[in-house]
Specification:
Strand content of chain B: 5-15%
Organism (chain B): Gomphillus americanus
Enzyme class (chain B): transferase
Keywords (chain B): DNA replication, DNA-directed RNA polymerase, Metal-binding, Nucleotidyltransferase, Primosome, Transcription, Transferase
Helix content of chain A: 55-70%
GO biological process, one term (chain B): DNA replication, synthesis of primer
Distance between the termini of chain B: 30 Å
Pfam families (chain B): DNA_primase_S
Mean pLDDT of chain B: 78
Number of strands of chain A: 4
CATH topology of the largest domain in chain B: DNA primase, PRIM domain
Low-confidence stretches of chain B: 1-102, 489-497, 539-553
Helix content of chain B: 40-55%
Oligomer: heterodimer
Radius of gyration of chain B: 27 Å
Number of domains of chain A: 3
Shape of chain A: elongated
CATH class of the largest domain in chain B: Alpha Beta
Number of helices of chain B: 20
Bound molecules: zinc ion
Largest sheet of chain B: 6 strands, mixed
Largest sheet of chain A: 4 strands, antiparallel
Mean pLDDT of chain A: 81
Number of domains of chain B: 3
Chain lengths: 504, 553
């Protein structure tokens, strides 16, 4: 799938999925036809894509999978998940049905190619360990299920009949023989009369068996046509699981391509905690009055727990150690605090230091973080980027006297509980949920849980009046997103409690 | 799982018996295969340590696994026994007489039981699914509960003799059977990653325990049972067994008395053993009915699923006889109120309440009939007959449908007590209930219908039976020996051990159970080799080679 020519890789063009681009029309290698929207990804990709596409497509799919996984962690219902995912899918992984004409236009092929390739790239990335394979298969199954459910009936039928599933159809004679039993399985008469039945080994439809939605006889399940989604999904999962094991065995040979392995490696790591590249997410809120004097209020109202903890520690000790200063400074830079304001902020916070000490020992770090000093690269890049949750979670944990890191990960359960309660999170269910999340190592889910709880009224409002859509409500994986979302929520909900207005 | 100390094979007592007090050594002298012929330390008392303490220190034990004197603790247990004063010394190969006061888990009793009665070879073949040692058994976990409640997990045995020897050496109070792993469980730590050590197969298991029926059984509570409430177990077995055979197509299902107040089911078909947790959950869900509580109705979809229709048919006669007549569950006002709450029509319920309040002592059977007769008398203007019928079905299920401890069935890596071990509380042997399949393919339930848990032999009874048999035999032999050469009456096995022609189990009440187990295992192995052959060779015909002679143990 990956062209060997170096020229192609060095051409760091920005790739967009543009249906008019020639590359899709004139693929030199075998271009697959993609007659159906849905796929069970049997065939590996054969055409070329650029390294950038390789990475971008993988990241886009990863976002979707991570989001889906988060939905199940949060125990969202099927319809809730579907509503939540719809805008995200449209944005990152659109997949449209064939038009009435039946002609598969180029833009449809392009969508399907991205879907196809990104699936295969992630297969490579996630086939390494049994845990990753299992997780990948689980979320891919959910994605497939979601899309299958959303398909038109004719589309489903055409797709299913295109697959070579060896499902036995129950004969008319047999249907007559077990008429009574079959009638007891389907709730409506119409289903019994015009639907046809499949007969498969019961192991292929465990979910239907569990719910007693099939008739069982000597190890065979009689499945009504309307339940075929379970069979398709089961088939999808079984094949994917097998394919992943095969991929795992083939993986060592991939080492030869040293351009791909680092990308795959990075992708598989970020599955544990999707990395929010802040490229497309401006975290600062234009026009917001963010100065050294408003930080106290902002911290109370809008900062995630990691930053609240840093802020409170700073206020308590009038000092923060290096790692904490760096994490906090970059965050403040991210919310839009200017360098000048930031220097004032730190100067006032370090009460016990003289001006001289401050200028000698601390101001340089702050300036460096903003890209004001340091080497060319640092200046050009405007200093470091604010830390994402992934970075905070994977960097060195805080030692004694240090306050950086992620409280959900780095605090003992009881200390975390006290910290949350000290910051006003006193709901028993939320605290219990956080405790479970933390046990499961889903630190970002715990953080999102607290966010949703503390903003529940506002979230309800913006969802109800439709002013916020799914893309605005993706799982938070960056402290600055936490801030921005909290801030915007507060300010877009007009009748929010005025008493703790940040302007005061 | 009953255990007080979790431990693992780091603390395995893999060294041979280092010291041996008089009792044990006398056993060893008479029965050379019992213990390894390792150096024995007569009467060594210095090494004796509390068993629990020994195992507390993980590091110590794991650092020096092979020389750690763990076995001395066991022998201490043995040496501490009070030997019946009537026994002449040196002792015979097993305690000749057991005083009525002996505890069931007394190590000497257990040791005698394992030595003379426990069907190790059949058990091995059962778990091995063949006569030739295979990974099915070599990678299978057994967990031993030693005297003193130490729980020893991840034991495994590559051959039947190893199993027997180790059980004799460790002399556990009981042991449990776990899954087959992808590698030998004793080697699990040497794998590159512990995460790659995983269970791959195990029988599908069921656990029916009468304490789960406490809210509806009126005859007994808690651990005690009688023949009346045993019927709950009987009907549960029939419902589950029918479902597993007719719906899932399983054939090799063994039901084992749990030794006190329950039954364990073992589904041994290859197809069942290879199920992952998802499939086990599916079966558990299919069989499970969320029964109502005192104030909550049972909730099942209508029309009734074929499995529930069949279950109703099986359960209806039990409901009449064992519930209405014998349990008589609606005597007090509280009990009748509970019944009335389950009915869908208030006017009907009120009329019934009035009727029953004025007739104290009316039997549950009559009350059940009253529901229909009062309903048809027209007390309720808008009686929904369909709803009433459904409610009556719900009541029937509420009082009869199997209450399974479903956790046991859901997980591949759940451990369950082995058949034929001794229940430490009752001393009864966990015998399989000899249910056979008739020629027409239907189950012959007579063994289950006649099964009386209160007369299941105890370990002491059967040990005494051997004694009785042997002394009878000795008397007979004395006569015979006058006439012919005595050497013909005994055979020697390859170890030179003297073996009676009649195996010990056959001298006891254990005989029908062991024979049933043997034939169950033979059937299983036959099916197994047939499917193996099918796998190997698509058009294979003819039986795979069978070695029934190796069935002896
Ligand atoms: Zn009873």
């Amino acid at each position: 799938m990956f062209r060997q020519g170096d020229s192609r890789i060095e051409a760091k063009r920005k790739n967009t999925i543009n249906p008019k681009r020639k590359q899709f029309a004139n693929a030199q290698y075998q271009q697959q036809e993609y007659p159906f929207r849905l796929s069970i990804y049997q065939l590996p990709p054969t055409a070329d894509i650029t390294l950038e596409q390789f990475e971008q497509w993988a990241i886009d799919r990863l976002r979707i999978l991570a989001e889906l996984e988060a939905c199940s962690f949060r125990r969202r219902t099927g319809p809730e998940t579907s509503d939540h995912m719809e805008p995200l899918l449209k944005k990152y992984l659109p997949l449209n049905a064939n038009p009435a004409s039946g002609v598969v236009e180029d833009f449809l092929k392009a969508e399907r190619q991205k879907d196809h390739y990104s699936h295969w790239i992630l297969r490579l990335a996630f086939s390494k360990t049994p845990e990753l394979r299992e997780r990948f298969a689980r979320v891919e199954k959910r994605l497939f299920e979601l899309r299958f459910q959303k398909s038109y009936e004719e589309e489903k039928q055409a797709f299913v009949s295109s697959l070579d599933f060896d499902w036995e159809t129950v004969s008319v004679e047999e249907r007559a023989e077990f008429a009574e039993q079959l009638a007891a399985v389907v709730p409506r008469r119409s289903d019994l009369e015009d639907g046809f039945w499949f007969k498969v080994d019961w192991e292929r439809v465990p979910e239907l068996v569990q719910e007693r939605k099939v008739f069982l006889r000597r190890g065979k399940a009689y499945v009504p046509a309307r339940e075929q989604i379970s069979m398709v999904v089961a088939e999808f999962t079984t094949r994917l699981e097998k394919a992943l094991e095969q991929t795992a065995r083939a993986l060592p040979r991939m080492d030869e391509d040293d351009r791909l392995m680092p990308i795959l490696d990075h992708i598989s790591k970020s599955f544990a905690m999707p990395d929010a590249a802040l490229a497309d997410a401006e975290t600062a809120v234009p026009g917001a009055p963010i100065t050294h004097s408003t930080i106290d209020t902002l911290a109370r109202q809008h900062f995630p727990m990691c930053m609240k903890h840093l802020h409170n520690t700073l206020r308590k000790d009038s000092h923060l150690k290096y790692s904490g200063r760096l994490q906090y400074t970059l965050f403040l830079k991210g919310i839009g605090l200017s360098l000048e304001e930031c220097l004032v902020f730190w100067r006032q916070s370090f009460k016990n230091k003289t001006d001289d000490q401050f200028n000698k020992e601390y101001s340089y770090n702050v300036k460096h973080s903003y890209g004001e000093v340091g080497g060319d690269a640092n200046r050009r890049g405007k200093g470091y980027s604010p830390y994402s949750c992934q970075k905070i979670l994977t960097d060195a944990p805080p030692g004694p006297g240090q306050a950086h890191g992620c409280p959900y990960k780095h605090f003992a359960p009881d200390s975390l509980s006290s910290l949350l309660q000290a910051n006003g999170v006193d709901d028993v269910t939320v605290l219990k949920g956080v405790r479970e999340d933390v046990v499961q190592k889903r630190y970002h889910i715990a953080c999102n849980r607290v966010f949703e709880w503390s903003h529940q009224a506002q979230l309800k409002k913006v969802k109800n009046d439709g002013s916020w859509t799914g893309t605005d409500l993706e799982v938070i994986v960056h402290p600055n997103t936490y801030f921005k979302r909290s801030y915007l929520l507060k300010n877009s909900v007009k009748d929010a409690d005025d008493s703790d207005n940040m302007e005061t | 799982m009953p255990h007080s100390t979790m431990m693992d094979e780091d603390q395995t007592m893999s060294n041979p018996l280092p010291s041996s007090p008089p009792f044990a050594s006398s056993i060893a002298q008479q029965a050379p295969d019992t213990f390894d012929s390792s150096p024995r330390n007569e009467g060594n008392g210095n090494e004796q340590v509390e068993l629990e303490k020994l195992f507390d220190d993980n590091n110590l034990a794991s650092e020096d696994e092979f020389s750690y004197p763990t076995s001395s603790a066991i022998t201490k247990e043995i040496s501490n026994l009070t030997i019946p004063s009537s026994s002449p010394l040196p002792l015979p190969a097993y305690p000749a007489q057991i005083e009525s006061g002996s505890r069931f888990s007394d190590p000497d009793i257990m040791l005698a039981f394992y030595r003379r009665l426990f069907p190790f070879r059949i058990l091995y073949q059962w778990l091995n699914h063949g006569y030739k040692p295979s990974a099915d058994m070599a990678n299978r976990e057994l967990a031993l509960t030693l005297q003193g409640d130490v729980y020893l997990r991840y034991q495994s045995y590559a051959a039947p003799d190893l199993l027997r020897k180790d059980i004799l050496r460790q002399n556990p109070a009981r042991f449990e059977i776990g899954p087959v792993y992808n590698t030998n469980p004793r080697d699990r730590k040497s794998l590159h990653k512990t995460s790659s050590f995983k269970p791959v197969a195990k029988e599908l298991c069921f656990d029916i325990d009468l304490t789960d029926y406490d809210d509806i059984r009126t005859c007994c509570k808690g651990a005690s049972i009688c023949l009346k409430c045993w019927q709950f177990a009987t009907m549960a077995v029939k419902v589950v067994d029918a479902c597993l055979r007719e719906d899932f197509g399983f054939e090799h299902i063994m039901w084992v008395y749990s030794g006190r107040r329950g039954v364990h089911g073992w589904v041994c078909d290859k197809r069942a053993r290879e199920m992952n947790d998802e499939k086990r959950r599916a079966i558990a869900g299919y069989l499970g009915v969320v029964l109502g509580s005192a104030d909550k109705k049972i909730n099942i979809r209508r029309p009734l699923h074929p499995h529930l229709q069949r279950s109703l048919k099986i359960l209806a006669p039990y409901f009449q006889k064992d519930i209405l007549r014998d349990q008589d569950p609606w005597q007090t006002t509280d009990q009748t109120d509970r019944l009335l709450k389950l009915l869908p029509d208030q006017a009907l319920s009120q009329a019934l309440k009035k009727k029953w309040d004025s007739a104290p002592g009316r039997s549950s059977t009559s009350k059940w009939k009253d529901i229909d007769s009062v309903a048809s008398s027209g007390v309720s203007a808008n009686l929904d007959e369909k709803a009433l019928l459904a409610a009556k079905q719900d009541v029937l299920l509420q009082y009869t449908y199997p209450r399974l401890d479903i956790e046991v069935s859901k997980k591949l890596n759940h451990l369950l007590k082995s058949p034929f071990v001794v229940h430490p509380g009752t001393g009864r042997i966990c015998v399989p209930i000899p249910i056979s399949t008739r020629k027409d393919g239907k189950q012959d339930w007579s063994a289950l219908d006649d099964f009386n848990p209160l007369t299941v032999p105890t370990v002491i009874e059967i040990l005494n039976e051997i004694d009785a048999w042997d002394s009878r035999e000795l008397a007979n032999q004395a006569q015979v020996m006058d006439e012919q050469d005595s050497s013909q009456n005994a055979v020697h096995d390859s170890n030179g051990q003297r073996q009676d022609k009649v195996p010990d189990f056959a001298k006891t009440a254990l005989k029908p159970f062991v024979e049933y187990f043997k034939s169950f295992v033979a059937d299983l192995i036959k099916a197994e080799s047939r499917s193996l052959k099918r796998d190997r060779d698509e058009d294979g015909n003819g039986e795979a080679e069978m070695r029934p002679e190796s069935m002896d143990f």
